[in-house]
Specification:
By secondary structure, the chain is α/β, with parallel strands linked by helices. 38% of the residues lie in helices and 8% in strands.
């Protein structure tokens, strides 16, 4: 995908939930109309327009499609922006937190509104490296700048109608290491063994196991090499794993609903936005890119 893709660059949008016409090569061939009088001449303006039934198309269809995928990507990317983040921070009150006897945070639901949310962000190391290179600073300072913008008193919390900021900013490096460990376990479990579990072998991918944290590579495999799909790893990417871990741990620890945790992923590329928009990944509400961080 082009690194300069934006919603302003295209004029062939499709709206979410609106029927999309699939590429012409996937449509059935039209049968020639029966003409009663073969010598009759009709002008084009008098011909009835063809009545093509629109096809309902989902994000999964778009990512595996070679036709209108660019339009769908543009729409999904435009729905995840810094404006949406700011609007959400203004729309929901922040859920108050208090500490228990051991000093761990717990949700103060008795004093908070039912629609209150806890805002959590996960930041990719590539974003810190990109900001460091852009402003000619160290990666450590770039990380500090991101923390201050998202959760500091002089950042997002200093503006808006509710003065909301992000309570926690999580580094996805730990999730990258977890994916590596889980990936090694997945490969080990796929090896032939006399003590292997039959149920585990059924769910395990075929060997050789192919894995990638890049959703663009997964999209490429889905579109052009479907024969390799049985070999793809069953593990989530670090971005998706971060969303699952954050919502699972916090919801259990704070005794709150998962939908009361609003998770923002700060990632380096547009494909990460598309990955998080898949129907099977529901633990990430919004995604920002490095250049959108600069705008904020």
């Amino acid at each position: 995908m082009s690194a300069i893709l934006s919603a302003d660059d295209l004029n062939d949008f499709i709206s979410p939930g609106v029927a999309c016409i699939k590429p012409i090569e996937t449509l059935p061939l039209e049968k020639p109309e029966q003409i009663n009088n073969p010598y009759e001449v009709t002008t084009e303006d008098k011909l009835p327009p063809p009545d093509h039934a629109p096809a309902q198309i989902s994000l999964t269809d778009c990512l595996a499609c070679s036709g209108c995928v660019t339009s769908a990507e543009a729409v999904l990317v435009s729905l995840q922006s810094h404006s949406e983040v700011l609007n959400t921070l203004d729309a929901y009150p922040s859920l108050p937190l208090r500490s228990d006897a051991e000093g761990f945070p717990v949700a103060g639901l008795g004093n908070g509104p039912d629609d209150g949310k806890i805002f959590v962000a996960s930041v990719s190391p590539q974003v810190r490296a990109s900001i460091a290179a852009t402003y000619d600073i160290s990666e450590r300072k770039a990380g500090w700048m991101i923390d201050q913008l998202l959760g500091g008193p002089s950042g997002l919390a200093s503006g808006g109608t509710r003065n909301n900021g992000f309570t926690w900013i999580v580094d996805t490096n730990a999730l990258r290491e977890a994916c590596l460990v889980l990936g090694a376990d997945e490969v080990s479990s796929s090896l032939p063994s006399s003590t292997s579990d039959d149920s585990a072998s059924v769910s395990a991918p075929k060997r050789p196991i192919l894995t990638s944290a890049c959703p663009g590579w997964i999209c490429y495999a889905e579109k052009t090499h479907p024969h390799v799909l049985p070999h793809l790893s069953r593990l989530k990417s670090p971005q998706a794993l971060a969303g699952t871990l954050i919502k699972t741990v916090l919801s259990q620890r704070l005794n709150i609903r998962r939908d009361q945790i609003w998770h923002l992923a700060v990632m380096p590329c547009f494909d990460k936005k598309l990955e998080a928009s898949r129907e099977e990944l529901t633990d990430i509400e919004n995604r920002l890119l490095q250049r959108e961080m600069s705008i904020v």
